[in-house]
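USER:
I would value a second opinion on how I read folds in token form. Give me a protein, with the fold worked out from its sequence. Write it directly below this note and I will take it from there.

ASSISTANT:
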Amino acid sequence: NYCSLNIKTQPSPQVAFSKCSSSYKENNSQEKLMLAMAENFRQQYALLYPDHKALLLCPVNECGVQKFVSTTLRSTLLPYSELYDWGGCASFVADYLALELLDPPFELLSSPSWVLQTQRGTCFDFSIVLCSLLLGAGYNAYCVSGYATKEMCLLDQSRQECPLLQPQIQVKEPKKPIKKYSVKPPRDLQSNFERRQEEKQQAEAEAAALKKQLDAERLQKEREHPPPDPLRGLRVHCWVLLLSGNREIPENFFIDPLTSKSYSTTNENFLGIESVWNHQNYWVNKQDCTFGCNEMTFDLGDLSKWEYVLCGQSLSIISDPKTLEEPEDEEEEMDELKVFEMPPSWVTKIDISPADMEMRYPGGMKVIEYRKAKLEKFAPYLLKDGLVTKLTTYKDLDCKIFADASVFSSNIPCHHVDHVHLYQPKKCVFFQDGTKPSFGSVWADLCLVNKRVGTFCFRNMSKSVYCRCRHKERAPQKARKKASSELVNLFVQETEELQKKQLWYQKNYLTMSNEDEDDYLAYCSDAMFRIHVLKMRLIRHKERAPQKYLALEEKLKRHPRLASHLL
């Protein structure tokens, strides 16, 4: 029972051919030559390895035009600090896109720009987008076409523990060294023999409890173990390979673009590799994958284990420098040969707006089901209560019996970050007063319930000063409120000053002279006149301001030069 909320099954949106660039709808001479070379390579490969599956070389794009897979990659570096390292890129792609299953597998590889626009794609589309971002960030990244387990291909995480529920490793603080001149502790008067006996009994009890717990966990894993997959080793999947070297990567590893998790190249979830490619070349695996990827090596310059499509400068970049030590006369012969270079990418510039980066998820939300847990993620400012993450845990594997729910909010002035709701069954008994109508007592209860719900759901969220788009939306309202707020402030200020003067008169009227009383009466008369004028101006502003603002807005909209600058 895996979560299918983030797997799109509805038909894909139609492509507007009129808005597509010419590179999407046709091939230039260099691309046609590349397709001819790829077809020649495919025929030779099928002749030499008749038992192998067909290679993914020239799938069609969203416009129905064949393109070589390496030209679909578009190296891109976006101006967001989150996308400067591989972890941020993988997390963004996994959150931003929704999965379309390869059921059945088809040879369609959309452009990264179209995938980001529709926010949906297959595992190949996920890998193409992620690899494009990693190449732009300076990583030695490759797309991998191969085979994986059922859970990885179907994005089934129902048997994995939620990352938020995994116990955090506590770092023990080092013991402080004992100073030379320190107070000696009092002498321990407890028997060492009794202490050793108690420690021995406690260790035996802990060992028995640990053994019992391990046996229970083993039986639980056996009960939860999935049935054997009849299609094991045949399920097509695509992921990303990062080779060591660039950006201080110490060793090679895989990245699953669907979950943004990293795995070692010997992980048992990856069952075989057919080919890898980047924006410069395409390599076919000639190694045996009967036992998975455990014994595979990723030296793409080793011709006994990898077969390349193009012989060019990309081979010298990835090959071992020790194997490139050749005589000078051979280097001169290689320089004389004309090498065919990979055509440039046909994909238009990849661009992600700040609003899309903030929205993050398809539709602003994403749901992931783990083992006995459900994780809901929301974009900031999407919900009125500021909710960004909600983790619900269950007591059963079918996720039907609630245990508790943890709520994480942001952008709230009260800094309400964490709140846990414990679900405990309670018996509720309702009594009805027979002397009153049946709906009489119900509405009172509903009113109380609505008030309680309102205290949790509606909070005033604070918005960042750097979020200009949201402040622009409220700019006209703030400008309109400014005039009325000034009048209100003046009215309140004059009223408060008059009240203070009246309090002062009540305290000192017994000791005041006739001149002071005349000054006080004159001040009160002037203050009452000013308050009356301010009150009339405020009433007149409330009556006439809306019509004047509407007339001004209509006039600005009809203005030929100012209409384009309106918000």
The chain has 14 helices and 14 strands. The chain has three domains: 17-159+230-336, 372-441+448-457, 468-565.
